[in-house]
Each structure stands twice: as structure tokens, then as C-alpha cells.
Amino acid sequence: MAANKRILLASRPPGAVTPDNFRVEETAITKPGEGEVLVRNEWLSLDPYMRGRMSDAKSYVPPVELGAVMTGQTVGEVVESRHPGFRAGDRVLTSLGWQQYGVAKGKELRLVDVSRVPASYYLGILGMPGMTAWFGLFDIGKPKAGETLVVSAASGAVGSVVGQLAKDEGLRVVGIAGGREKCDYVVRELGFDACVDYRAGRLNDDLREACPKGIDIDFENVGGEVLDTVLRRMNLFSRVILCGLIAEYSAAQPYAYKSLRSILVNRIRMQGMIVFDWKDRYEEALADLGARLAAGKLRYKESVVEGLENAPQGLIALLAGRNFGKQLVKL
Ligand SMILES: NC(=O)c1ccc[n+]([C@@H]2O[C@H](COP(=O)([O-])OP(=O)(O)OC[C@H]3O[C@@H](n4cnc5c(N)ncnc54)[C@H](OP(=O)(O)O)[C@@H]3O)[C@@H](O)[C@H]2O)c1
Asked: Is the pTM of this model over 0.85?
């Protein structure tokens, strides 16, 4: 059998991630033990949280150890099973990280149905990013028809789902994205009411124009200047779902927020979210997202890097905003 290629964390980046933070290694493929399954990974998900795992700063989960396989969710095919619940040829979702093959225990695997959607969707719209959008919007945002929602990183894995769900619920939906091409996609393909290009340098004015009745819900994926500007336009008793701060993940200094007063005077409710807190309810979101997808109500875009050895470049591109849609590696 072929050797297993894998990518290890070689060093911790002080700022932006660079290729030399990683090391490629070839090892023998491990045999599955009793109750275990050998999987050949077909897709690796690249996600912004990986920047946090490369750092040893305290967070909601421990960092990847130096010399360990980089963490990541994968979808793949069962090659050999010593678990009664899985057979060779099954497609499974698991977290085997940045490697071609891996062994997982039965409880670490979930069978996925690839008869109606591509396997890669379970890493995106029907996976962790889709769950994040669904629970953040409905459980924290509590959207009501007629309200105005703003979502940043609007063309991305989480943002694109948030906006389409909110539109389907009857809200006015305004995206924030980097560049004309992404903004055009968000309006023309995803059906948002408007999209503001934050790189154009007129974010406050453009948001005022796009949100004539102010903002009732901010689904925040970016932070920094984007969040600071959005806060200035929020309504009385509005909500902020603090999902991500990608603008700050590689920054040398935390951003110095100037608009916190708006939270006080407008009685804004701001809640941080980590999607794992909803893990017992994933099936609920999956059923609803799957139904909306089947009904043609959700559009979805992927940004694919070919080959495991290009995963570092894929992550670097994602963290610099050069992805367009859910970032994946085809193994
Ligand atoms: N809390 C949770 O449980 C949870 C779960 C999943 C994701 N998240 C967070 O949700 C956010 C979106 O994640 P995603 O997986 O959907 O990624 P994504 O949106 O597909 O990709 C990241 C996007 O962030 C945007 N961005 C804005 N400012 C940026 C900056 N200064 N540097 C780099 N990129 C910037 C870029 O889009 P533009 O070019 O449009 O700016 C980029 O395409 C991230 O903050 C992530 O950490 C949180």
C-alpha cells in the first residue's frame, strides 16, 4: 500500500502564517485496531480557526503541538473497517487532519449521504460552517421579517449561508465583502439586497445608504474596523452575533475599538459563539439546511486547492481573504 503523506506544524507564526510553519512527512499507513476504521481522506477543510490552533495563546481548545499533524476536518472513504458500523467504500466525516490516510475510532466518524450532494458539502454548507450560520442566526440573532441584517465576510462559507437564510426569513440583508467581484456575486447570485465593499474606503457612508432603517442584527465574522463601523449604525435593542474576528487573528496588536458606547446607549446584546456548544442539535440544523438546499433556496461556492502539499498555501490564501467561497483541499 502507498505511504501516508502528512503535514505537521513545524513552528508557530508570530504574525502572518508562512509556508515554513509547516513540514511535509511520509510515514507508513497505520493498520486499524479493533473498533477502528482506516480512512483515505478525499477532502480537507481549511478554516480560519486553524490560525488560532497554530498559536499557543489560551483559547477554547488547546493548540496543535509542535511536530503534530495539523488539525482539520476531513471527508473520505473507508478503506478497511474493524468496526461493525462501517464498511469499505462508506463515505465518512471525521477530523483526521492534514494527511492522506488516518485511523479513527467508530465514535469519531459520521456516515455521510453522498447520493444527493457532493461529499465536500459536509465540510461547508452542510458542515461546521453551515451549523455556525444556522445556530448563530436563529438562536442568537432571533431574526424577524422586516428587520435589517448585516453580515461580514459575506461571500464566505459562513457569511453566504447566514445571508441567504435571513433573506429567506424575510429580512433586508446587506453583505460586507472585499472587492467588487465578491460584492456582485453576493447580490446577483446569492440574492442579498445590497453588498458593501469595505475595501472601497467608504464603509460608514455605504452602510448608511444600504441600511436606511439602521441595523437590527450584525452577524460579525471580521471584527476590527468593520465591526467598529457597523456598531455606529446599529438600532435600539439590536443584536450582534460575535462569530469571528478574522481581521485580528494575525494582527500584532488587538484593534482599539472606538464605538463601544453604541452598545451601551442602544442596549445592544452582543454574544460570542462557538459552534460546538450546539453539537447535540446538529441534526436539527442539518435537516433544515438540507431541505432548503434541495428546494434550491441556497447557493454555494467552493474554492479548491489541489493536493495536500498545497494546503499551507490554501490556508495562507484564506487568512488573507484570497479565497472565494468555502476553502477546501482536494486530496
Ligand atoms: N465561532 C465559531 O464557532 C465559528 C465557526 C466557523 C467560522 N467562524 C468564523 O467565521 C468567520 C468566517 O469563517 P469562514 O470559514 O466562513 O471563512 P470565509 O468567510 O470563507 O473566509 C474568510 C473571509 O474573511 C474575510 N476577511 C475580512 N477581513 C479580512 C482580513 N482582514 N483578513 C482576511 N480575511 C478577511 C475575507 O473575505 P472578504 O474578502 O470578503 O473580506 C475571507 O474570504 C471567521 O472569522 C471564522 O473564524 C467562527
From this structure: yes
